[in-house]
Design goal:
The protein is an alpha+beta fold. It contains 20 helices and 30 strands.
């Protein structure tokens, strides 16, 4: 036996055994060029960005009215509507600005009616919704009743004039006109309203050939708890004719409007995939949204759960950090955004409205459950959409799982005890890889709040996470895998020394390294194999990604590398195996991954539901763990190629330099955590707190409160504002729907801007004590038509609420959350302000309502009334508020003036 020198074969790593005249010749090089590895990393980075850019940033050219004619979609026309609506400023429910917005949309729809095709009927209804109560209990609605009154919607029905049966089979297209009090709403959702108006104009020229009517619902009250959709479904006579619902929404400003909820019937998404010119939609987004990771809801939930409808839910998701802030403005709306959604929707409506096979009947039962064979969907580079049904997916997944089990069992049986130990040790390398990747990233997550002015310094510059978390995650993943690799090599060296006693030790060592590399690659297959089993068992829609990441590398490995003979000596893995195996997985998933991470980074602005309740590092931990998981899942195959290469030192050096540069930029403040266009969510509220029962005469306590749903203290902001603010956790505030555990407060001039006549009243009218105790309470919200009432369910078994003579919330089962049932009321200017509440006490009530962490007894009722009024001390603070801050609005947050009151148990 003779061994050729390594230097003569380093340019082409290979291993082979030849036998001739009883003399063995072994050519073996267990080494790979570092330049090849570095080139692969560059290819992965460049390819990932290219896929993301093409899939999510590549928008169509905006078209003018002359280019599209009467029947096409023109962004130039649609953008006029966005400009007109945003010029009104914020237009929440009950505001004069919303009345102006409704009038604008009404005039636009009247113009559409006048210019419609002569064979098309256009019916216009300015619908005034009576009082109602949304009693849904799923998701964000647990423990709540959403009550509304005096809402106005614009409903437009377009149908063929000479096919009256079409009106009994309608497609609903819906969005909302109202905004939160803090935003002019260019994205959420003036862009949606504008698209609908332009769609309606186009559809009015096509509908003479339709077999179904199209109803366009421009609703109000969505931002206060999906009240517009609820009132339409429960009160409007046309709602009974709707067989499919399409909802248009926004979680940011512009970009591609993609489908993030579909079904439960697959018919809609299947036809959208066939019709859309620029299809965009990912079931990954649906899985994330339905998991509750994103605390939000859309009108689509009402259409699905309450009306039992199937359909599609679209959303803009670029610039999610500006959601519900002052930066939801027109200048951030990218050209082509409206054209993308408009052309897709117009093509889809023309297809389904002319179809004779539009599904009829309920898609879900009374509990919101569906027996339908749901769809799995995803787009490829925004050019083609793949849709297949869950039943087929289960068959496919089961087939791959069974084949994988058969192959693994056969392989282990032929390899014997050594193969089983090698599999166990390669699995250990996976575990170590995950531990180190997450550990390295978490270390950074805990350090960032100590060295940065903000615990989430990457919000305005999301690319920073590549260096701050991505580099440590890759370094940790490689370190953990390398430790597992060394343990595996040590074991395999002993194995080869027993099997090939005639081979030199250096050859045995090289053989062990080559075999260990193969086992690490196969461990990556095992990782995705396990994920496929879990996803298939729980029917997770995005399990197709696990299939792709398993099947494609396994095919490449089986085609180019695998052998069923354990007697053959291992060879180095071919680079082409990696290229073939990872091309499809990266094509299908890299753009989604970047988009998902960007969305979650933007969501960090509104991370804290109860300000001060979470540690500052929590947001970093979530991002760090996510990026570490992505690194372990997607780079497991590539990292297995590094251990016998000369790229180990360059990889460590590059990741350390990248991390060092990013951390230095954060520490020195080179890149600010927030900017004027990507602002921190800060709320300024003039609070008037009555504390105890209104029946007892006491002086109200007034102050200006400052708090933030964005992690981090407010010291820097307070220093710029001045006005005597003090920050800390000493004076927590209970706003009924949430609590402020860390905030800032000032009593400077806090006694002006409000009047005692504005203070709401809670008065006990009658109390019948005994085993069946009943208490009648009157509530006067005075100037407020937006209020929140908490009812202590530890003491109260049931209740009903009336607004004047009208019953708003009937007696019946009501959910609770943390011992409270919350009533959220919002209405227009004519909404009632006086209410009667009847409380039915629990028979065995024993004053259980005591805070677990103190001796303070919880009240029986707690009330917050909101007034959309900026008092003079609040105006002073808002003028001095740093430009990197913005008010943040949602249905549970107070307006700029809030009155707090309560009723004690022992009233």
């Amino acid at each position: 036996m003779r061994q050729r020198s390594k230097g003569s074969a380093q340019s082409k790593p290979s291993s082979r055994t030849e036998t001739s005249n009883s003399e063995d010749t072994v050519v073996l090089v267990a080494k790979r060029s570092k330049y090849v590895i570095l080139a692969l990393f560059v290819l992965v980075a460049y390819g990932t960005w290219s896929v993301y850019q093409h899939q999510f940033l590549n928008l169509p050219k905006p078209l003018g009215a002359e280019e599209v004619g009467k029947r096409g979609f023109s962004e130039h026309e649609a953008i006029k509507h966005v400009k007109a609506l945003t010029q009104l400023g914020p237009h929440p429910v009950g505001s004069d600005a919303l009345d102006h917005a409704l009038q604008y949309v009404l005039q636009a729809t009247e113009t559409i009616k006048e210019k419609a095709h002569w064979e098309v009927d256009v019916e216009l209804d300015l619908f005034h919704a009576k009082s109602g109560a949304n009693l849904m209990v799923g998701g964000l609605f647990k423990g709540k009743t959403l009550v509304y009154s005096d809402l106005n919607h614009i409903v437009l029905r377009i149908s063929p004039k000479y096919a009256s049966e079409a009106t009994e089979n309608a497609i609903l297209v819906s969005s909302h006109i109202d905004t939160v009090f803090s935003a002019e709403g260019a994205g959420d959702c003036s862009s949606c309203v504008a698209v609908m108006l332009e769609l309606a104009r186009g559809v009015s020229q096509w509908a003479h050939g339709f077999k179904s009517a199209v109803i366009f619902l421009f609703n109000t009250g969505e931002e206060e708890g999906l009240n517009g959709a609820h009132s339409f479904i429960t009160q409007h006579p046309w709602s009974d004719t709707v067989t499919m619902a399409i909802d248009l929404e926004a979680m940011g400003v512009g970009g591609k409007s993609g489908i993030f909820q579909a079904g439960p019937q697959p018919w809609a998404i299947e036809n959208f995939a066939l019709a859309a010119k620029y299809p965009s939609g990912q079931i990954v987004a649906q899985d994330v949204f339905k998991s509750g990771a994103i605390k939000s809801a859309t009108d689509f939930q009402v259409y699905q759960e309450l009306a039992g409808l199937s359909g599609l839910d679209f959303a803009y998701a670029d610039n999610t950090a500006v959601y519900h802030t002052k930066n939801d403005k027109l200048k951030l709306l990218k050209p082509g955004s409206l054209q993308h959604l408009g052309e897709n929707m117009l093509a889809f409506l023309l297809k389904v409205a002319t179809s004779a096979h539009l599904p009829k009947g309920k898609a879900t039962d009374s509990r919101g459950k569906s027996g339908q064979d749901t769809a799995i969907y995803f787009d490829i580079l925004g050019a083609y959409m793949v849709v297949f049904r869950q039943r087929f997916a289960r068959m496919l997944y089961n087939s791959v799982i069974l084949q994988s089990i058969l192959i693994w069992t056969t392989s282990l049986f032929m390899g014997g005890y050594s193969a089983m130990v090698s599999l166990a040790l390669s699995s250990l390398s996976l575990i170590l890889m995950w531990i180190c990747a997450i550990g390295f990233s978490l270390l950074v997550a805990f350090v960032l709040p100590l060295v940065s002015s903000s615990p989430i310094p990457f919000v305005s510059s999301p690319w920073l996470v590549v260096g701050l978390f991505g580099a440590p995650a890759v370094l940790g993943a490689f370190t953990g895998q390398h430790v597992g690799y060394l343990i595996l090599v040590k074991y395999l060296t002993k194995t080869f020394s027993r099997r090939n006693v005639n081979l030199p030790f250096v050859v045995q060592d090289d053989l062990a390294k080559l075999d260990a590399e193969r086992w690490l690659f196969k461990a990556g297959l095992m990782q995705w194999f396990v994920l496929l089993i879990v996803g298939n068992f729980y029917k997770i829609g995005s399990s197709y990604l696990a299939l792709v990441w398993l099947a494609s590398p396994a095919f490449a490995y089986g085609l180019l590398e695998a052998t069923l003979s354990p007697a053959r000596l291992p060879k180095p893995l071919k680079t082409v195996t990696l290229l073939i195996g990872l091309s499809v997985p990266f094509l299908l998933s890299s753009g989604i991954i970047v988009h998902l991470v960007a969305t979650l980074i933007g969501s960090a602005v509104r991370l804290e539901r109860n300000p001060g309740s979470n540690p500052e590092w929590l947001g970093n931990v979530i991002i760090a763990v996510l990026i570490a998981a992505i690194a372990c899942l997607t780079l497991v195959y590539l990292l297995s190629y590094i251990h016998i290469s000369g790229a180990k030192v360059p990889l460590i050096t590059v990741t350390c330099i990248l991390f060092g540069i990013s951390l230095t930029m954060v520490q020195l403040g080179v890149v600010p955590p927030f900017t004027e266009d990507t602002a921190r969510a800060v709320n300024v509220v003039h609070v008037v707190d009555m504390g105890g029962a209104n029946d007892k005469k006491q002086e109200p306590v007034s102050r200006i409160s400052l708090f933030s749903t964005t992690p981090g203290n407010l010291i820097k902001e307070v220093e710029q504002i001045g006005e005597g603010f003090v920050c800390g956790t000493d004076e927590p505030l209970d706003f009924v729907t949430f609590s402020v555990k860390y905030g800032c407060w000032s009593d400077k001039n806090a006694n002006i801007g409000w009047h005692e006549l504005d203070i709401p009243l809670i008065h006990v009218e009658n109390d019948t004590k005994g085993d069946n105790r009943v208490t009648h309470v009157s509530i006067d919200t005075k100037v407020s038509t937006r209020w929140t009432l908490g009812i202590n369910t530890d003491e109260i078994e049931d209740f009903h609420l009336k607004g004047g003579p009208e019953e708003l919330v009937p007696i019946g089962d009501k959910s609770n959350a943390d011992g409270w049932h919350i009533i959220q009321f919002s209405g227009g200017k004519k909404a009632p302000r006086k209410f009667s509440l009847t409380l039915f006490w629990a028979n065995n009530h024993t004053h259980k309502s005591q805070k677990k962490d103190s001796n303070t007894e919880q009240p029986l009722l707690k009330l917050r009334t909101d007034v959309d009024r900026i008092t003079s001390p609040t105006e002073t603070v808002l003028k001095k508020l740093p430009q990197w801050c913005s008010l943040f609005g949602k249905s549970t947050s107070p307006l700029t003036l809030a009155f707090l009151s309560s009723l004690s148990i022992d009233f």
